[in-house]
Amino acid sequence: MAAKPAENMSIIVAYIACIAAGGAVLYATRLPAPWDALLADIVATLVIFAFSKAYRNSSTYDPYWSVIPPLLALYWYATGAGADPVRAMCVTLLVWLWAIRLTANWATHWGGLRHEDWRYPLVRQRAGKAAFWADLAGIHLYPTLQVFLGCLPIYAVMSHGDRPLGALDLMAFAVTLGAIAIETIADRQLHRFTATRQPGAFIQSGLWGWSRHPNYFGEMSFWWGLMLFGLAAAPQEWPWIVPGALTISAMFTFASIPLMDRRSLERRPGFDAYMRRVSAIVPLPPRRRG
User: Fold this and answer.
1) Can you tell me where the transmembrane regions are (predicted)?
2) In the beta sheet, which residues pair with residue 211?
């Protein structure tokens, strides 16, 4: 079901407000980089959380994942000192390409304020009396901090320019662009399938015949690509460049994917056989039926 124009405007207003709040923090704060951006990110998240509560829908936060990273990239590009121009431009363009694709995909298939991600009510229900805090911390602030960690390699690229381009940059470019391509193909295959699927059916063709979650594999690979760019620019800073991709991958591997698989097992006949035959994440030739 498509969103109504008023609902679209509600989301636009929420994100204008959150970006304005984050920008005001960056303008007013005297914190050193990248802590100024982290504070702005948290304040912007709190603004979106306020709109989520006002709209009674925590999916108001969903676009945040892809809206903020390209803005951070632009801010660090504008304020960074000494970045290698080719590396910085490659990273900026790739982050914007990823963000535009992911945000457009969300906007195209957003069901409006009447639709909320099925996982969010579960989080609140399990928290009981602490539902407010579970919503704030688990659905809003935790992903923001994860993505900020994932974006720190962008900061490394924009603030360290003394290392020339090399083989690691080429690998990073290939991984990041390949990840965007995998996500795009997986989403297009899924949307074509869902447009005509029968009740209880699930996609088992294309990339989905080699991986149960190729879209998640592409998303994880994107953050690994950024990590490689950060290491190419500043390998000595690996303690704060590496954790972002690792924590995002851990979230998908140990939380999102098991939750999705359990739901599919309950709702889709034959999914157990599909799980035995097809890799969970990395696209691999399917196992033979036996």
Assistant:
1) 12-29, 35-52, 64-80, 130-158, 164-182, 240-260
2) 279
- Is residue 217 exposed (0-12), middle (13-18) or buried (19+ Cβ within 10 Å)? buried
Q: Determine contact, residues 140/41, Cβ cutoff 8 Å.
A: no
Closest CA to 63 of 93, 22, 108: 108
- Token digits for 258? 């098991």
Compute the distance between CA of residue 225 and CA of residue 55 in angstroms, rounded to an integer. 36
* Domain spans in the chain, listed from the N-terminal domain onward: 5-277
Cα atoms in the Cβ-side hemisphere of radius 13 Å centred on 247: 16
Q: Please tell me the distance from the alpha carbon of residue 116 to that of residue 142, in angstroms, as a whole number.
A: 18
Taking the C-alpha atoms of residue 233 and residue 90, their distance in angstroms, rounded to an integer, is: 12
- Provide CB contacts within 8 A for 12, sequence distance 6+: none
pLDDT at 109: 86
Residue 290: predicted pLDDT: 52
Whether the pLDDT of residue 197 is over 80: the answer is yes
User: To 10 degrees, what angle do helices 243-251 and 214-233 make?
Assistant: 170
Residues contacting residue 214 through CB under 8 Å, at least 6 positions apart: 182, 185, 186, 207, 208, 283
Distance (Å, rounded) from C-alpha 151 to C-alpha 148?
5
Stretch 185-198: mean pLDDT = 93
User: Could you give the CA distance from residue 155 to residue 75 in angstroms, rounded to a whole number?
Assistant: 9
Between helix 142-159 and helix 35-55 the angle, nearest 10°, is 150
Please, which residues have CB within 8 angstroms of residue 151's CB and are 6 or more apart in sequence? 69, 72, 73, 226, 244
Nearest Cα residue to 243 out of 173, 178, 151, 179: 151
Q: Are 25 and 71 in contact (CB under 8 A)?
A: no
pTM of this prediction?
0.95
